[in-house]
């Protein structure tokens, strides 16, 4: 007998929560502090992925710049828009003298990703005199 789509979605959320809890327990045992902010919900991430992919594809067709330059500008914001929870959980050695021992809040990371992803549009808009 097959489960309803809603039931499958709930079980996936439960599995994701269990994995996140196991990861948090593991990180806590290593002395890494979890940021008190919550994770970005899966539906928001899915919408962000869809919209950011559309913006990225539009950049390749609309901007009169070499595609490699476009890719270099949008790769990091696109990654942060697609994987905000994963990137926010990244910890470890940043340089020889700096360690990241606390997870970042994923929601501001997603907001920053979108600001950087839309920066070329804003730059063109300002360059052209606010659309006039």
Report on the structure:
The protein has 132 residues and is mainly alpha-helical. It has one domain (32-127). 67% of the residues lie in helices and 3% in strands. It has a two-stranded antiparallel sheet. The longest helix has 25 residues, at 5-29. The mean pLDDT is 78.
What tags apply to this protein structure?
elongated, 132 residues, two-stranded antiparallel ribbon, mainly alpha
Mean pLDDT: 78
Question: Helicity level, as a percent range?
Answer: 55-70%
Percent of residues in β-strands: under 5%
Radius of gyration: 19 Å
Produce the secondary structure layout.
Elements: H1 5-29, H2 42-62, H3 67-82, H4 84-88, E1 92-93, E2 99-100, H5 106-127
Antiparallel strand pairs: 1-2
Helix pairs in contact: 2-3, 3-5
In short:
The chain is 67% helix and 3% strand.
């Amino acid at each position: 007998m097959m489960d309803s789509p809603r039931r499958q979605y709930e079980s996936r959320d439960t599995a994701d929560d269990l994995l996140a809890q196991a990861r948090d327990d593991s990180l806590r045992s290593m002395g890494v502090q979890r940021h008190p902010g919550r994770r970005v919900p899966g539906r928001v991430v899915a919408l962000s992925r869809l919209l950011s992919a559309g913006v990225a594809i539009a950049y390749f067709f609309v901007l009169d710049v070499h595609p490699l330059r476009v890719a270099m500008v949008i790769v990091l914001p696109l990654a942060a828009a697609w994987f905000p929870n994963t990137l926010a959980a990244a910890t470890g050695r940043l340089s020889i003298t700096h360690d990241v021992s606390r997870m970042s809040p994923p929601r501001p990371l997603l907001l920053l990703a979108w600001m950087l992803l839309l920066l070329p549009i804003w730059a063109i808009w300002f360059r052209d005199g606010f659309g006039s």
